[in-house]
Amino acid sequence: MGEIITVDDPADPRLHDYTNLTDVELRRRREPAEGLFIAEGEKVIRRAGDAGYGMRSMLLSQKWVDVMKDVIDRSHAPVYVVEPALAEQVTGYHVHRGALASMQRRPLPDPADVLRTARRVVVMESVNDHTNIGAIFRSAAALGMDAVLLSPDCADPLYRRSVKVSMGAVFSVPYARLETWPKDLTTVQELDFTVLALTPDERARALDETAPHRMDRVALMLGAEGTGLSPRALAAADTWVRIPMSHGVDSLNVGAAAAVAFYAVTAGRPQE
């Protein structure tokens, strides 16, 4: 059982993991360097633990101690109990869900290991908005995608906002980073994946015409909000595909487009 410690000093060094959570640039650099990420809210904390991530500590308001008692009992990590006002001083925002946990990161797997048993894969290029990353992971998990590959400049799926938006789905779908972009797409193609580039370009084939659900192994490639896939990524793809639009709408938000495309890729596929 983790030791329960009441803390009343916002400068207490034991709260270091939770300082300045709203400083995006600082946290983006600091969290991977220190090997941690922040899980927010009861469900997300539980899902992180169930996925095998080790806990470094918890930061709770008093009313959450009983709610999280079973988690506390299973962990050896310290539990810092603070007043809500102090939590806000430390983190930089009002912690609405009253519960935070600092979790230990794990080394990312090699892309080839992630792909070995997969048949439906998401490939993201330059998706650097944490909300979009979280939404895409949530749809990938819900709709049966097997894995996610990220270009080197994609946002961190374990950043607090990404984890929160995904409702912990970032823990459910294996993911890896490709080191050299888009050259490392050859790793995907050499494992017999057909790389489909999702684009609103009129030269692309409609998804239903392409029938990706009938293909043996599919890697669906998505680009950043607004700019879409780069010319280099499009050139590396096997086929361009699009979601047909109506009423003069030219494209969907990347999160919405991903969900539609994932369904098209997985529909009718036997669930394992």
TrEMBL record:
GO biological process: methylation
Highest taxon above the source species: Bacteria
Sequence intervals crossing the membrane: none
Keyword Transferase in annotation: yes
Family annotation (Pfam families): SpoU_methylase
InterPro entries: Alpha/beta_knot_MTases, Ribosomal_eL30-like_sf, rRNA_Methyltransferase, SpoU_MeTrfase, tRNA_m1G_MTases_N
Domain tRNA/rRNA methyltransferase SpoU type residue range list: 121-263
Keywords: Methyltransferase, Transferase
Molecular-function annotations in GO: methyltransferase activity
Descriptive protein name: RNA methyltransferase
